[in-house]
Amino acid sequence: MLLEKVITYEIFRPKMDSSKEVLHSIATLADDISPAFPYINTELGGWDYDQRNQVLLLKLSAGKWITLHAQKIAIRGARDIEESRALLEWIKGQINDIYDRRDLITPRYTGQAGLKVINILKLLPMTNCKLCGYATCMAYATALREGEITLPDCLPLMEERYREKRENLQAYLESFGWRALDAT
Ligand code: SF4
């Protein structure tokens, strides 16, 4: 087991975010969890991965973020103490489970933050038809980059005539480890 012991766990309401009803928390770890980062990045679709400084940023749904450092876990956006503790238990389980399976996982060193909206846009039908619920293809491309929607939300893209664009977009997203937020 890579992560065995949490030394301290501090939960607080940040002063700069006092208008928001969310909590921040920081767990200090007895163990160095950084060897698991490239594998967690693959499995959980890391938003940003700074390999040199060993920082992996995970974006979850509903405005929640988890930042992994070698011996720290920072959690932002929990609604209450119970959710904060549940998120810590969830990520601890993920770290140990993924690290145990690392021989079966291809490590990834890029994050979703490297995706460019303009590159996504070029691979959409670019008709601004609004069938996805967004006013423009640019708005859809931005939401897709953030992981807030999925490819089938653009119905025209599923049509045969856009097959090449769809496959190229899928490959582009996958090259950055993209995944929808509700997949976590
Ligand atoms: S459904 Fe597709 S083509 Fe239509 S506006 Fe949305 S992204 Fe553009």
TrEMBL record:
Where does the 4Fe-4S domain lie?
Answer: 112-171
Give one Pfam hit by family name: FeS
Q: Does the keyword Iron apply?
A: yes
Q: Which domain of life is it from?
A: Bacteria
Alphabetized UniProt keyword annotations: 4Fe-4S, Iron, Iron-sulfur, Metal-binding
**Alphabetized GO MF terms:** 4 iron, 4 sulfur cluster binding; metal ion binding
**InterPro entries this protein is in?**
4Fe-4S_dom, ACDS_complex_subunit
Name of this protein: Fe-S cluster domain protein
